[in-house]
Amino acid sequence: MQFNREIDGDVYFIRRYSREGLVVGLPRSKMKGEGLSPEDMVVKLQQSAIVLSNRIIDDWSPQCMSELRAEHIEQLCELRPELVLLGTGEECHIPDAQIIAPLINAGIGVEFMGTSAACRTYNILVQDGRGVAAALLIV
User: Which domains does the chain have, with CATH numbers?
Assistant: First the structure.
């Protein structure tokens, strides 16, 4: 699925998502040099990742819902987002309460949705200046 929304050029934004991975556009501040090719302006991710407006964590370890644990959610709490979008793959899955407890205890909002929907929602919220973290399972 290709995303073509015009958004602020100084944030990471998700250009494309498929089962093969994510294509994330770089913030303007990360693009150095003249004559950059389109390949130089994106990061391609083929495994689960966390995308924030100012940072990508490309080694988030759970690769599917059955691998998701509370310690992975604690990583999200350390980032202190206002809201976490948990992209759970092709379909929406809601994790057990003990897995998401760290977010609830920290007072951080969380929404569960398929990864494609999480990508679209992230782009909208980041454009609005919200402190959002998209935790995306690429499955």
Answer: 47-136 (3.40.1230.10)
